[in-house]
Every structure is written in structure tokens, then in C-alpha cells.
Here is the input.
Amino acid sequence: MILYDYVLSASCYKVRLMAALLGQSLTLRAVNFHPGREHKSPEMLALNPKGTLPVLTDGDTVLADSADILRHLTSEHPEWRSTDDDTWLAFASDLNDSVGLARLHDVIGYAADIDKTRAAGVTALRRLEAHLTEQRFDGLIFLTGKTPTIADIACFPNTALAPDGGVSLDPYPSVRLWMRAIRSLPGFIEMPGIHRLHELAHPA
Amino acid sequence: MDWIAVGLAQDVPPGVVIPSRIEDTEMAIWCTPSGRYHAWSDRCPHRGMRLSHGFVRGETLACIYHGWQYNETGSCDYIPAHPKLTPPDTICVPTYTCVEDGGVIWVSLNSGNDPLPALGARVPIRSVPVSLSAKDVAAHFGTAGFTTIAVVSDYDTLLAVQPCTDTSCILHVLATPDADPKAVSRWVEELRTTLEGVPA
Here is the structure.
């Protein structure tokens, strides 16, 4: 499988993280998204007419939607699936359009009504916090149950990167514990702005 | 106003550090692996990095930047770049009085001599940020002080109010032990909508 990848993209990181957690190796092709706009190059448009990243190719299959890619990667891993995933894959789009857009505005100068975008981010994070809090009342830490699914992997990156877009995560204790649980998963990998749990490293 | 709630114990399990604040005082709240809570100034004395970005290692809090480790009194115990050095006593983090009581983490920026707020038989449910000052929340309920506010509801609710900024505070919600926590959680979401909808 080949992933056309941009290291700072939250959506590309979803794919890298999911593959790492599954132990699935990917061939990474770095695309100069910024400032090169290489995702709009003729070669990339031939592959994905929408001109977006990530793009995953697996033989003749070409997938250009991160939710579709997560489903594809886990097609033979039912333990990473739940009947509630679709709700949270849709919610992951809300996160992408709010805290995700605010981050792109702040980090690489995307056009956005920044106050409105951040306010939408707060609304999304409040919804996430309320749901995860109710899950904790039932003794569950992940979005759909006791174990993580593609729902968690889809929602984690833009949530964890929200402070890069000026949206604080400080007041959301259930979100914090959920992110901690994801960062504790065997095989977890980092991206710039999302670090591993240092507690798990060997003491000095 | 002596004791202020800064979090719920269930949200800061052993080995976890979180950022918190009482007005302009920014704090790192952390819990040792053996379950003791501490509230410190959120600045590493070395380079000023927020200690709440750091991590708990053994019974110490370590800064994420250069790994300086601080023991439970706030004194620096270990500097990884100088492993043989015993750090001087002058390298220490300002600490605040911090206790856990009734499942709530309380901090005093004053003497800490006042008795802790009475919670009755209530148990902690959750913490909810509100885009309104603590003063405005207190005014809404017709009270001047805001350490704790008993609110009439089906759940015998009590709000421990944490003042954060001129436009934000956190409500730490407690309720009768037989209440359904999900019902209380939804009740406080509605309360927040009401509070934030009231024109200033």
C-alpha cells in the first residue's frame, strides 16, 4: 500500500496511526502540500481529481477519503469496528471543519472566519467531552466501547492538535483521559504536535 | 474565599498532571503514583516551560523541556544533563496548599486555615467549563460568594465554582449519590446553556 502523505496533515496522520496500530506497513510518498501545493499537480490530480490528501493506493484501488481509508485498512480487523463508527466518522468531519480549519488558518494561512471557526470547535469539543464523560460513567474509555475503533482514530488527531488553532483543551478532563488512552496503545506513533507518553519510557 | 475547587480526583488519576488556574495564578495539578495531590506554579524554574506539559515519573514531576525532576516538596532532585550534580535547594517550584476531600481537589492560595467547604453526602459528577465569570454565575444564583453554590434540582446539586478569567469559569458538579450521573450531566449542560444565554 502506498500513502501519498503530508507529515503535518491531521488526516494523513489518521492513516499512518491506524496502520501503525495494526502493524500494517505503508510505503510513504511525501507530497509537498505546503508551500509547494503539489497535491494540485497534474500527477496528483490524475490520481485524485479532488486534489486532496491523503490518497491511498492498494493495487488498483485508489482511496482519497480518510474515513474510507480507515475502513479499508480494517476490513479484516473486526476488532477495530463498531456499529457506532459512522456517527463518529461524521463527527470527525465536524472536527476537521472547525478545530482542524482553525489550525490550518493559524499554521499555514488558510482563509477562515477564525472566530466563528473556533466557536464551532468549542461546540464540537463540548459534544465530545459530554459523550466521553457518559462513556466513563459506564466504565468505558473509548468513543464506542471498551476498546478503540476507527471512530477513535478518526477523531483523535484534530482533537489533539486543537491548541495549534487557538482552541484550548484544558477544560475537558474526559477528552484528556481519552487522548491518554489512545497515546498508551501499543504501536502508537507520534506526529509533530502530538507526542508520545514520556511516562512509558524508561526512567533515567 | 479560601478553598477553591480546581478539579475532581476522578479526572486526575495517579501519574497524571493537568493544567488549571485560579484567576491569574496558573497551576500544574498532579497526582503521585501513591495518590497524593499537589498544586504548583505552572512554570519550570529552568526555562519557564509549563510543568503541566510535563510528566509524572515515580514520585516526581518532570519538565517536558529538559527533564528536570521535582520531588513532592517542589525541590529539584535531578537534572538529566548533569546526572552527578546534586541540584542546589534554591531550584524549587512555588507550591500551593492542596488537598483532596470528598473527591474534589481543593487549593488555597492563602493560609489554608479555613475549614474545607461542606459537601454533605454528595458525590462528584463532572467538571464543566462555562463562558461566564465566576462572579456572574454567583450573581445569577443571587449569592456573592462562589466557593460552593447549592442549586435546587432533582439531584440535590452543589456547584463548586472555579474562577478562571473575566469570561470563564469551571463548575465542578456534585449531586446526591443515588442520582443517575448521566441525568445530572445533561442537567448541567442545560444549566450552562441557560447561564451563557443570559445577556451580561
Q: What stands out?
A: The helical segments of chain B are 134-140, 181-197. DSSP finds two helices and 14 strands in chain B.
